[in-house]
Amino acid sequence: MTANPRLLQNSHDDGSSAALKLLLTAICTWEVLYHVVRYLVKLCLRVSPQWLLDDSLLIGSAKNITAHDKQTNGFSNGNQVPLNGSPNGCHERAALLEAKQNLSQRGASYAVSLIHAFYASCRGVLHLYNLRNVSNLDKLLIPSTHAVHGIITPRWAHLQVATTNTVFLSYLLYDLVHILIQYPKLGGADTILHHILFATCSVINGTYGILAFPFGWLVVGELSTIFLNLRWFLLKSGRDKSLLLERANMSFAASFFLTRNVVYTLGMVHLFYVSWKELSMLSEVSGVPVGWLLLTVGCIFLGWGLNVVWGYKILKMVRKKNGNKKK
Q1: Residue closest to 159 by CA, chosen among 144, 137, 174
Q2: Which keywords are on file for this protein (predicted)?
Q3: Is residue 175 part of a domain?
Q4: Considering its fold, how many domains does the chain have in total?
Q5: What is the pLDDT of residues 143-166, one digit of tens each?
Q6: What domain range is 277 assigned to?
Q7: The model scores a pTM over 0.70
Q8: What is the pLDDT of residues 215-253, one digit of tens each?
Q9: For residue 26, how far is the Cα from the chain centroid?
Q10: CA dihedral in degrees (20, 284, 133, 260; nearest 10)?
């Protein structure tokens, strides 16, 4: 009976301890980055809010404050005086305060998410390129050595995938903590379940050294997250009617369709049809328990189904918006 490998054993040339050190370092890096960004956002909102907020929020609020000062001669008698003589003034002031609150409380989390999405999607493209010509089995299993009888194996490319997987796992763990602390502002129960499931799959893959090529086409899908986060910043900073938001929406829809529908579907065909023989023997050659392998493959299949549903909904929204423009 083969002993189970240590945690993340196949994620580093130096074994489990080195991989776990990388994991902890990455978690700490995300956390430090979060606090740095949060400090900078708050500083910017206090000193130079025009760098983050749209002029419509700032100018509208400034006009109403000026009108309020004129009505009270610069003093307040303790009574509520409607800004600018109408409820609109109160609404504009509330919109500014809400924008500042959203950016100061949640802006750092979305900024870190954007950085992670950029890193993961770029690394995903790199992994797909590096593993494009290796055998189907080598696409699914990390070779045990860098060379066999003088012939170079793709282990170096797999270890690059393993490093990305470890960083990806560190982000999921970091983000899960923040979601729980700010629940439900950063995500609901579905987001928590998503993070727990894929963190588990990440640990399984990193421990047994499996599914490197599928990991590549999975994390390429993070490209759409970049535009989703940019969309959030535009909406929360008062740019909900800007041309930038329209372009961000279109970029999100296009990148989602390309990476999470087209590339993901091609990856599913490769995994379950082209590489079916290698996938069916993966438990035997890698030592991963069948249950763990089924969990990982099941999550991949579930993710594909969700992306199909989301892609259909996005397509309907795009068609509806284009139809309204024609009218």
Answers
A1: 144
A2: Membrane, Transmembrane, Transmembrane helix
A3: yes
A4: 1
A5: 888 877 677 889 999 999 999 999
A6: 9-46+107-326
A7: yes
A8: 999 999 999 999 999 999 999 999 999 999 999 999 999
A9: 15
A10: -70
